[in-house]
Amino acid sequence: MKATVTKKVLSEGLGLLERVVPSRSSNPLLTSLKIEATEQGLHLSGTNLEVDLASFAPAEVQNPQAFVVPAHLLSQIVRTLGGELVELELSGDELSVRSGGSDFKIQTGDVAAFPELNFPSQVDATVEASDLARALNSVRYAASNEAFQAVFRGVKLEKRDNGARVVASDGYRVALHDFALEGEVRELIMPARSVDELVRMLRDGEAKLSYGEGQLSVTTDRVRMNLKLLDGEFPDYERVIPTDTKLQVKLPSGSLKESVGRVAVLADKNANNRVEFLVTEGQLQLNAEGDYGRAHDTLSVEQSGTEPAISLAFNAKYVQDALGPIEGEAEMLFAESTKPAIFRPAAGGGYMAVLVALRV
Amino acid sequence: MKATVTKKVLSEGLGLLERVVPSRSSNPLLTSLKIEATEQGLHLSGTNLEVDLASFAPAEVQNPQAFVVPAHLLSQIVRTLGGELVELELSGDELSVRSGGSDFKIQTGDVAAFPELNFPSQVDATVEASDLARALNSVRYAASNEAFQAVFRGVKLEKRDNGARVVASDGYRVALHDFALEGEVRELIMPARSVDELVRMLRDGEAKLSYGEGQLSVTTDRVRMNLKLLDGEFPDYERVIPTDTKLQVKLPSGSLKESVGRVAVLADKNANNRVEFLVTEGQLQLNAEGDYGRAHDTLSVEQSGTEPAISLAFNAKYVQDALGPIEGEAEMLFAESTKPAIFRPAAGGGYMAVLVALRV
Q: Which positions fall inside the DNA polymerase III beta sliding clamp C-terminal domain (chains A, B) (predicted)?
């Protein structure tokens, strides 16, 4: 096998794989990637057992052959090369990587022992890659990284009238985002960590979804990815979304983010970073108190609804997370002091966060 | 005490102090800073016991008074404030920090218990702050962060014909930088960690040095700093600088940095990141070998000297450190395979690194 490929193309392909393939593992094969040289170019693939990833690098190839190399090592070598073209040559189980005045020899692994990765070709649905990325990005924070129950570490995909919804919850808050999708929507739960990898792979263009047995596959111009799905029953999150809100406020999301950030400095870390919200007479007052002192902040808001005032408390960190995806005007909808509240962009756009209030 | 100060000025002053004052300590007073409000403004000072730092923030002050507050907390609060002006008011032992719609109350500490910090006013020498910063920055890497002997964790200042020199060594390498200085030079050793703090404080303008008992003080427009000095005998580093070099090479420092970075990928981490240098016939060949394979790189160099060829080995990491401060053309001067080698900018400028060669 002998291949000539541009450094840029190879290095991009390896960079994608490097994100998924672990740099250390008790099984060294898992730190490797498989390169299948064909007459069109190099098919690169690797897995962390949760996510399989494949990318393609066009190349001039003689004597096509498949081989296995340490993923991070090859990526690091190619990144540091000086020339614009890279020549790969396999002789026995040694791979030469040459470019400019450089010549690297690295040991290849056992290609027969490498796990079989299958990327399906059927397409069940299509979506704008940037829409899918934005939706996943907006809800990801609400999934737990540690929760005992797996579904709290997942992001659910479900069908909506005009497309699809992704939703995540750790039991204390819910984040959801609706988006347009063409084709079938199957209800499924992706591990949030795999969602992080998926979001990194999504750019512009179209993403094709394919539903498999315990697996979701996503294909874009650049990559193909399989995500192993989570089993379990996602909580009935719609139950906690208040429907009878009695007081609504609108204000610039930037001002609210800054204000919450300010008072949070003095909020008690051992009491859920508690920040009290008091809405009355077109003002939102924020109060926090901790070991080092007290913070008080006042913001003007556009207030509406049937109740003249409301007072409730939230975890400052959760409020900041909920506001994260909101740009421009934010809207907060309150039911009662003990009931969850809604945070969403006043202009719509598909995103909504629901926060459980802290006890008074 | 009541003071009005711009957020920008106060926040810059606090930002400087925040770098030095520890955020945690078994003695909470050490995490505090002292604010002495005078009719001219606010004198801020703090210490980590190795370095004392003072800065000044012009302010409008009524009823001048001194007080002590948690440094990081105040800095964090001021940074997040929305308004342009900040009002500080002391009532009893509670400090109010007000700006825009925000009002923070924080507890002050015991001003009598705060360590007495003295910043001398005499000037023994003056130097361009940027020259001093560059010189210290260039040699800092050669000081150890862990060595058992304190002097190896220090940077020495010493007198030279046309000014001063700073030099650091961890026993395996030496870095030195000569620079212009007006006035007296006293031989002294600064802890490298304090040097890091000093470098961060130095900008443009003049730095005034003042030598005290076991202490160096540096004053600039913005800050005053005391550095506690190290005791001990600095090693006779001049002994290891080769004077009879027999082969010299010149090449662009960028190409050499890249090349060393490349071959270092395969160098054996357990064998000092060993990279072999072979100079012959106007070429520098670099070779490294480790568990995963072998790397070979070739660079064209401008070769001179009485010896036709030399082969020696270095720790790749040390070569990269030595090249760090060199821009443009680099010069390497070799004596023998077992002797230290010199790395310096071909254009001069005061910097030189000396590297011990690894055994063949």
A: 239-347
Provide the shortest C-alpha distance from residue A242 to chain B (in Å).
30
Strands of the A309-315 sheet, one edge to the other: A309-315, A274-280, A283-290, A293-300, B102-107, B94-99, B85-91, B2-6, B60-62
What three-state secondary structure class fits A173? Answer: strand
Q: Which residues of A touch B257 (CB under 8 A)?
A: none
For domain B241-355, is the CATH number 3.10.150.10? yes
Q: Which CATH class is domain B2-113?
A: alpha beta
- Rounded to the nearest angstrom, the minimum Cα separation between A37 and chain B is 21
Please tell me the predicted confidence (pLDDT) of residue A201: 94
ipTM passes above 0.90:
no
Best of A68, A75, A297, A299 to substitute, by most chain B Cβ atoms within 10 angstroms, is: A297
Fill in the amino acid letter for A71: A
Question: What number is the average pLDDT over the span A27-48?
Answer: 95
Q: Which residues of chain B have pLDDT under 50?
A: none
pLDDT tens, A89-108? 999 999 999 999 999 999 99
Cα gap B273→B266, rounded to integer Å: 9
CATH topology of domain A125-237: DNA Polymerase III; Chain A, domain 2 (3.10.150)
Query: What is the pLDDT at residue A320?
Result: 97
Q: Looking at CA atoms only, how far is residue B253 from chain A in angstroms? A: 14
Distance CA B280, CA A193 (A): 52
Of A80, A292, A295, the CB nearest to B261: A80
Query: Which chain B residue has its CA at the smallest distance from A297's CA?
Result: B102
Do A104 and B77 make contact, defined as CB atoms within 8 angstroms?
A: no
Q: pLDDT tier at A242 (50, 70, 90 boundaries)? A: very high
pLDDT grade for A168, boundaries at 50, 70 and 90: very high
Question: Which alpha helices (H) appear in B140-278, and where do they start and end?
Answer: 192-201, 253-264
Question: Among partner residues B76, B294, B297, which is closest to A105 by beta-carbon distance?
Answer: B294
CATH 3.10.150.10 domain extents, chain B: 2-113, 125-237, 241-355
B259 neighbourhood in chain A, CB within 8 Å: 82, 101-102
Tally C-beta pairs within 8 A across A and B. Answer: 96
For residue B193, how many other CB atoms are within 10 A of its CB? Answer: 17
